[in-house]
Write a structure and sequence with these properties.
single chain, mainly alpha, two-stranded antiparallel sheet, 9 helices, elongated
């Protein structure tokens, strides 16, 4: 069963994302490797950029483990599908600037900004050093899908398109690294302590355009088709593969 991609009726609200996080927290009580929603969203975005539409029964075990039963978590699945439709619709819009309200913007967290916004006495020593950078978890989720289905990301024969794909993936890979720039802005709150560098914002912008390019390539190329390999023809003195017991030259190889 594949996930439908019609125009979404309404975008997810902050409350919807809270519910997604709550469900993942619940699942994490039994399996600590269950990812955060930001990782899930990156994974989802990658699925939408693949030439083949991966059915949900194939990707659920990869993302949430072999024990995940969609029918037991229908509220989560319902919101997942709404977000799927929302992102697919955004990626198919002819946007030219990120400020366009139709543009896809990853649901990424500025965790450092959230910690810095806390009173100093409420912070735990060492917290900031171990926290992921802004949108880093999203990029890790995207690349997890790429690494899970590497055959679906093989470059096409067209050199120009292959280079476009390679550059786009490099832009997303760059986001899997930490933020080495000087903090200049908080993505957590408008007046919060600086936690994200301008260089990081540029990387995020590049990654968003990369997703658009990968989606465009996937839709223009269509599903990858493996070449049909012709079985090797038997030698003239070999037994005929039809099972007659005769030599090939005196059976189907005659004439």
């Amino acid at each position: 069963m594949t996930t439908p991609t019609p125009t979404p009726s309404a975008p997810l609200t902050p409350e919807d994302f809270d519910e997604l996080d709550a469900e993942l927290d619940f699942l994490r009580e039994r399996h600590e490797e269950i990812p955060q929603w930001e990782f899930c969203e990156g994974f989802l975005a990658a699925l939408l950029c693949m030439r083949r539409e991966v059915p949900d029964e194939e990707y659920w075990p990869v993302l949430l483990g072999e024990d995940f039963r969609p029918m037991e978590h229908m509220e989560f699945v319902w919101r997942w599908r709404r977000r799927w439709q929302e992102i697919a619709h955004a990626l198919d819009q002819p946007v030219e600037v990120l400020e366009d309200e139709r543009t896809y913007h990853p649901e990424a967290l500025d965790t450092r900004g959230a910690i810095l916004a806390l009173p100093a006495e409420e912070r735990v020593e060492g917290d900031l050093e171990n926290l992921p950078a802004y949108a880093q978890v999203w990029a890790l989720g995207f690349m997890y899908a790429v690494e899970t289905w590497p055959e679906e990301w093989q470059p096409p024969r067209d050199d120009e398109v292959a280079e476009m794909m390679d550059n786009a993936l490099e832009d997303i890979v760059a986001l899997t690294e930490g933020d080495a720039g000087e903090p200049a802005i908080s993505m957590y709150s408008e007046d919060g302590p600086p936690s994200v560098s301008n260089e990081r914002l540029d990387q995020v912008a590049n990654a968003i355009w990369a997703v658009y390019e990968l989606r465009q390539v996937a839709r223009s190329l269509g599903p990858r088709i493996d070449p049909v390999r012709k079985a090797p023809e038997p030698g003239r003195n070999d037994l005929c593969p039809c099972g007659s017991g005769k030599k090939y030259k005196k059976c189907h190889g005659a004439g």
